[in-house]
């Protein structure tokens, strides 16, 4: 998960001749987090009040910059979650296929029978093989070129645990992805509202000076 910086804007001006600048931290523009620590964007209901809550008051440019930075961070999180979701959606059917195969081997063992399968010799060449199921042993790839030997019972327990975790991870990442996209929308709405607020202020100031 992408880390969101706690410092969004400059704390103060670089020299004494410039006016001080409001300090906007991450906590100023979020309203807590979800269960997996993804920030919740604070919606600016009253822009005048929100701007005036800083000392000195935050300028429109500073507010827009803060939410633009947060928006970029959310886009990074969205990309990571999208990739994670795609990985989970691909891995779950593979786990389910392995579970089905182990159960088939267990059934053959109980029946005192062997299993007939085909294996790949080359790109388009397959051969038929007879698998002795009486020993009740199967080898599972664990990733990173690691293969371990398990009994059918151990393999089934391991695979069903992985399946359950993968499905829960998919549920969580789907929820987080929806949540993140809502935060992106809120950031965009805040940026638009601050911009329009600034335009109205400038027009009112120009009308007053005429």
Automatic annotation (TrEMBL):
Gene3D superfamilies: 1.10.287.370. Keywords: Chaperone. The keyword Kinase does not apply. One of its GO terms (cellular component) is cytoplasm. It comes from the Eukaryota. The keyword Heme does not apply. One of its GO terms (molecular function) is tubulin binding. One of its GO terms (biological process) is microtubule-based process. PANTHER family: PREFOLDIN SUBUNIT 3. Belongs to the prefoldin subunit alpha family. This is Prefoldin subunit 3. It comes from Skeletonema marinoi.
